[in-house]
Amino acid sequence: MASKPERAAFYLRVSTDGQTTENQRHALTEIAERRGWKVVAEYEDAGISGAKGRDKRPGFDKMLKDAVRRRFDVLMVWAVDRLGRSSATALTALDDLHSAGVDVFVERQALDTTSPYGKAMFGIAAVFAELERGLIRDRIIAGLAHVKKHGPRPNKKPIGRPSVSADKEAAIRERLALGHGILRVAREVGVGSSVVQRVKAAASETRQNADAPEAALRNQRSESE
Q: Is the dihedral of CA 169, 171, 174, 175 positive or negative?
């Protein structure tokens, strides 16, 4: 393979719908321009966890298939864990790409597998990415177990979605009552659309609970008539 690949491809991934791949794209584009690489393809999996297999990541699957077809010379990714959250997944992808004659450039870990040293460092970074994921999972499990057994820890933020202030909740309810849409209310009050949706759902549930006794009384009357 040439020491300076000319055809580059991006693989972009974020784990949730609330995230965007635009920052990854912007950073990789600047690097490709500096190196004189021509970006010929982009592959993206938005809102898909790196822990999922190839069959659940269509962008990842297509990228590997195009690599075999030699449609690009180097694959550029923002970080090792974009390829996979386990070292096995990331290293398997690396082997598949190298078998196809494609190198990998990883910006965050400053890895360039055009050299043996870069390939070795890639493997080390993939191991640490898996270790980090395991540590995070263990901390979450331990925290939930502690709360279940002892209750919330003092001076700790509650687990779950943050609550909205009473003033903002009142403002949300008022605007919803006027028939304003969720996006408009979120913009006017200065909160996320998910907050407005939660307030709306809670208000709907409250109304249903309030109407339940009256509905039951009406049913009882109709049955006795």
A: negative
pLDDT tens per residue across span 118-150: 777 767 766 666 666 677 777 788 878 777 777
Is 15 one of the annotated active-site residues of the chain?
A: yes
Query: Measuring CA to CA, which residue among 133, 162, 154 is closest to residue 146?
Result: 154
Distance CA 197, CA 202 (A): 9
Taken in order 39, 23, 160, 147, the sign of the CA dihedral is positive
- Opening angle at CA 176, ends 170 and 177, nearest 5: 90
List of E strands, the chain: 7-14, 38-46, 74-77, 103-106, 111-112
Among residues 15, 165, 204, 224, the one annotated as catalytic is: 15
pTM over 0.85: no
The two structure tokens encoding residue 48: 């898909």
Paired residues of 43 in beta bridges: 11
Rounded CA-CA distance 171/99 in Å is: 59
Residue ranges and CATH numbers for the domains of the chain are 7-131 (3.40.50.1390), 166-224 (1.10.10)
Report how far residue 44's alpha carbon sits from residue 23's, in angstroms, rounded to the nearest whole number: 13
Taking a C-beta distance cutoff of 8 angstroms, is the pair 32, 104 a contact? no
Instruction: Provide the β-strand partners of residue 112.
Output: 105
Look at strands 38-46 and 103-106 and give their pairing: unpaired
